[in-house]
Automatic annotation (TrEMBL):
This protein's GO CC annotations: extracellular region
Active site per the UniProt annotation: E152
InterPro entries according to UniProt: CBM5/12, CBM_sf_5/12, Glyco_hydro_19, Glyco_hydro_19_cat, Lysozyme-like_dom_sf
Record keywords: Disulfide bond, Hydrolase, Plant defense, Signal
GO BP term, pick one: defense response to fungus
Region annotation (Disordered) ranges: 73-93
Domain of life: Bacteria
GO molecular function, one term: chitinase activity
Protein name: Chitinase
Disulfide partners: C171-C179, C267-C299
Biased composition, class Pro residues, residue ranges: 84-93
Organism encoding this protein: Streptomyces fradiae ATCC 10745 = DSM 40063
Chitin-binding type-3 domain mapped to chain residues: 33-75
Signal peptide start-end: 1-29
Length: 299
């Protein structure tokens, strides 16, 4: 491929929002090429590593997994020969499809408040989460949840809503239970930024925690914070037509999780940049978990 043609192809793909890897020589058996990415574009001659082996693309390809598509030619084992995570593998030894090492890789700059142990402790509240539909679907759901969480919190950095001017507006005083913790006490907190007195009431009732009177527990106890996020994910349609959990286990796709969380402000062309941010993060996390992202990524 000429340098000029390569540059033109790269410019075209960049404009289309794609990652392009220009042809490179096949890595030796002792060295692994860059890990295969479902979101990257590969041209004939490109190499990628997957499942402890190097693979070479025969022609243009995207989202076709090495070893499962004829487009890839096996170039032999590489590195230590240790396979990458396979989507048919059983859950990690922790009992969750995301290992602590993978969690740390996803959130390298996270706030220490958002602990892996807190997330693990919260999982018992919704046992169907990331355990339904087999290993592939379980990994996809975990990646989808954590991608949306990452978007909502700036990479698990923010524990509470940053715009304090909104704080007094999240109390619906017409509810029979009012706002016992104070007019400005129900601002966004936690991985999916739980807000409004009626949501604190509903989440607390479902979880067996008095969050209406003690909303601050969501920003002080990691397991409680994670449980509120899982409550929303598994039980609330939000502005969508289904829960995010239902979207992932039925094949409706990642785009419907966006709609359930913030569709009124982002979907149907309202804010494509925010949607793309969520999709990109989901693609990154599915790559870490060694699983294809599936279809219907946008809303």
């Amino acid at each position: 491929m000429s340098r000029r043609l390569g540059a033109l192809l790269a410019a075209f793909a960049t404009a289309a929002g794609l990652t392009v890897l220009l042809p490179a020589s096949t890595a030796s058996a002792a060295d692994c090429a860059a890990p295969w990415s479902a979101s990257s574009v590969y041209w004939g001659g490109n190499t990628a590593s997957y499942d402890g082996r190097n693979w070479q693309a025969k022609w243009w390809t995207q989202n076709e997994r090495p070893g499962a598509a004829a487009v890839w030619a096996d170039q032999g084992s590489c590195g230590s020969g240790t396979p990458d995570p396979d989507p048919t593998d059983p859950p990690a030894p922790s009992g969750f499809v995301v290992s602590e090492a993978q969690f740390n890789q996803m959130f390298p700059n996270r706030n220490p408040f958002y602990t892996y142990s807190g997330l693990k402790a919260a999982l018992s509240a919704y046992p169907a989460f990331a355990t339904t539909g087999g290993a592939t679907v379980s990994r996809q759901e975990a990646a989808a949840f954590l991608a949306n969480v990452s978007h909502e919190t700036g990479g698990l950095v923010h524990i509470v809503e940053q715009n304090t001017a909104n704080y007094p507006h999240y109390c619906d005083a017409t509810q029979p239970y009012g706002c016992p913790a104070g007019q400005a006490a129900y601002y966004g907190r936690g991985p999916i930024q739980l807000s409004w007195n009626f949501n604190y009431k509903a989440a607390g009732d479902a979880l067996g925690i008095d969050l209406l009177n003690n909303p601050h527990r969501v920003e002080r106890e990691a397991a409680v914070a994670w449980k509120t996020a899982l409550w929303y994910w598994n039980t609330q349609n939000g502005p969508g037509t289904m829960t995010a959990h239902h979207a992932m286990v039925t094949g409706a796709g990642f785009g419907q999780t966006i709609r359930s969380i913030n569709g009124a402000l982002e979907c149907d062309g309202r804010n494509p940049a925010q949607v793309q941010s969520r999709v990109t993060k989901y693609q990154q996390f599915t790559q870490i978990l060694g699983v294809a992202p599936g279809a219907n990524l946008y809303c």
